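Quick one - first record:
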Amino acid sequence: MNIERLIQTAQEKELPDLVLKNARIVNVFTGEILDGDIAVTDGIIVGTGSYHGKTEVDLQGKYAAPGLVNAHLHVESSMVTPPVYAYEELQWGVTTVITDPHEIANVGGIPALEAMLNASEHCCVNYYIMLPSCVPSTPFEHAGAVLTAKELSALKDHPRVLGLGELMNAVGTVNCDPDVMAKLRAFSDSVIDGHAPMVTGKELNGYVTAGVHTDHESMTFAEAVEKLRCGMAVLVRDGSASKNLEAIIQGVIESGIDTSRMAFCTDDKHLADIRQEGTIRANLRKAVQLGLSPVQAIQMATINAANIYGLKRIGAIACGYRADIVIFDDLEEMTVHDVYKDGTAWKDIPVLNNIPYPSELLHSVHTAPVDESIFEIPEQDTYHVIGIMENQIATRTLTMTHEEVQKGLADGTVRKIAVIERHHARNCHACAYIAGYGLQHGAVGTTVAHDSHNIIVIGDNHADMLKAVEVLQAIQGGYTITADGKELASLPLELGGLMSLKRADEFLPLLDSIIRMAYDRGVNPNIDPFITLSFMALPVIPEIRITDCGLFDVTKFCFIGNEASL
């Protein structure tokens, strides 16, 4: 950075490289919207007001806001590689992403994290990483790796590492688990992300006292307020499966509570949804339509997130800040007119997608031999059944009689769900019942199964469920739909069984096609066929889940005894 040149052009003793003329500038520091020009030199904003430049672009009164910040996300959930994902974000005005690569870390450990850091060097946005704190998320499942405090500390000083990722083991935290304590001590001078759904009262006090800074799991305004009052920053989430923004923002509007410690995030969002509406731009639009002030919403989407994570020179249109700017036609629909990253229009920025990845991440499905017997469930008078909740990743624990289960199997309201370990051929698997998925015939399977990413399959008959497992082995991970002993459709996710190596334009039609097929086969139209399925194995979100070790009661943090498991 040539500081002398920046100083000179700020005073217009030299012409700036670029001047965006006649903008309506959103000032996130004062809450004002000011008319003026934006001068940029060497990718840095050197001034606002009245300027002339070597290149001038007349914005004709359009709104200029800081580049948006997605405060918490998992790139792997988009199912494309970091450079491809970053370009999709950029088109919709996001210029900074804070990612937690715990999905790929659960598959490949430290080499997987190093691969993601290498890929981040080729991204067109400011790409930061929170090192995964819970690999695996709990001791009640088998992941592909186990990451210790010592291993994580070796990557702590990487320039794109901000701190420790979401601390999903809330129980271990408040009970002072030695492994959790070691990680907290190692990252005590860094930002530590939380993951505390429905954690409240003195348990929450203990969790925050441990040093946790943020949380993105609030489903209600009351939950969000309690966390804010404890000193946590609340990341308001709206993604493909979890949609918490409306409840929280309505509460913000009604209460008038301060939002300076609140930001927006998506957590998990499908590429198809991003292509349709963006990520943080979609959150902005929804918040404004609910009645939140556009400037207040933009503050949450920019400077608030930057401040929460200690990011310098990001999140504002002001002198010395990076020239990351999104141009909106309006502040109601938040229609994106253009985006500048370090002073360069997004359309002039290339996408790099020829990055090499370790061969072990391209061959990551290793299951023990299985047969249809793994889907047998012993007959009982009553069963604990996973109840899907529409538009949420939380589940309900249902108790159903044998007769009710049989009736549900017949009418399509109940199906079998199984998880099979796929990393080290451990011969671990479990099967249980699930309600609300809606598949009429056949099976749906995937290797995207948060967070350990074993094979998860749902179906109405054992033969098609087994066929789905076999297909996923053959394609080394991805999505599949089977019926009558045949593979109807598959979507390979070559990188760790989580991400495709294709470009977005190649990948999206394939994704759209397999999702449409799932709906055509009777999957509940109010859930995402694959995202919803993928979260059924996550044993840190209430109330009930299934891992490769068995059916799990998240509220009691113990296994339930009515599943078939080994």
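second record:
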Amino acid sequence: MRAAIAQINPTVGDLAGNARRIAESARVAHAQGAALVVAPELALTGYPPEDLLLRPAFMADCAAALAGLARDLADCEGLHLVVGHPHALDDAGDVRSKSIAVPRRFNAASVLGGGRVLATYCKRELPNYQVFDERRYFASGRDAGLGACVFEVQGRRVGLLICEDAWFDEPADRAVAAGAEVLCVLNASPFHLGKAGEREQRMAARAQAAGRPLLYAHLVGGQDEIVFDGASFALDASGAVAARAATFAEDLLIVDLDAAAAPRGRIEPVPGLEAQAWAALVTGVRDYLGKNGFPGAIVGLSGGIDSALVLAVAVDALGAARVRTVMMPSPYTADISWIDARDMADRLGVRHDEIAIAPMFDAFRAALAPRFAGLPEDTTEENLQARIRGTLLMALSNKTGAIVLTTGNKSEMATGYCTLYGDMAGGFAVIKDVAKTLVYRLARWRNLQPTPRADGSVGPVIPERIITRPPSAELKPGQIDQDSLPPYDVLDAILARYMEEDQGVEAIVAAGFERATVERVARLIRLNEYKRRQAPVGIRITHRAFGRDWRYPITSKFRA
């Protein structure tokens, strides 16, 4: 039997466009001899559709789109298409209020063939951790008394599972007991660093436990703050990788199963960590702007490492013609910042403007002088500069329609080393989940990639001095980040333990970190939750990002 995995990049809510994408992949696969095509989890709607699922009109349109997709492929003789979609039963089992009963909704996969829906499977295990919130929207197929779904293709019996189902024994055991010779797993598994290896390991264990080969169909692309990395695969019954699709790209993976159901196909490599992170950021920017219709991006370029990294990502994602930079020097901006910002903009060939903020800064201070009389200068004056810059960038955004990409990293977001309505002003936070130490690693990795520059030469896109000079916000004379923060290697190590691993202060101190530093960092994280709640959405690349993963109260007296 020849099968195909349709690794597609859907857009949430674009039912017609997603159905068309699935149908096109299915037709190409059928033309190549595939009798089975597998599309990912909720491919018809995009993932996650969130509260769209609560709208009866949306569910009705999903059902119509599924039926239309089946009819559209009726002429593909012998083809079985498995596609993920939301599914509603007609009973009134899910009661949301005393007076209103609505149908039960399921995260489902249907088998289409001969112009109709042949069978439907409803997901049994509903994740409710990290970015997942499926119990808000879906009932379990187990609770509804719905069983396994096993269907036949060219004499081969195929059993369906959806994402979390394959992480537990019971759903796969039921499929095998119902006669499944091959397991088909539909997935929408959000990317974080190291996730690809984890997926393959867990699915290898599932294939071994079931004693069955396994086809794994995964989404690719960006949806708000999450990205999907693709890398769909096929495993043999021993858990060995027999085929793998491309990472961070749409792909159609052809898999041939021999008489013993052993799969084989091309095997694409898994990129290294920095390459994965870079591809995730590029995908996130490209799809956020593309799917939301922004004509381009604006970056406030400071001559520092963070804005340099964001600019490089933006150009890789959108092309130089759609990216614009603005340098806004203050009285404290070093000459080398001007020089390095111009140099990088020239290397990448983007439009670069300079707007001096000194006259505006002086005007603000003059207007506030009577109210500030007798008070010393402090961070108030520093923040004025950042807020002037934010106002200018947003004015350019309003005038042109281009979105402002903010440049704050995870270390800054954690500790509040950023200005509300200043450098936090913008529409999309590209490196919001990238710790400062990783910022440097990514900058050096990107500079090692051979890149044609605007002048026709080939070389690094980020000037070396931007990477090597001490980081500074340049909001007062001689300022560097380490005046206000611990060294970044120490800070990021504490953040990883406290924020990403949920370790308490005592555990981190016991690991060898200085108590005063740990307590200070923990205090800064707690104090700045109100800022993060007002920050733009940003790309998630770790297993614990500020956003859907992080739901701490602003008002709290807990201190451990």
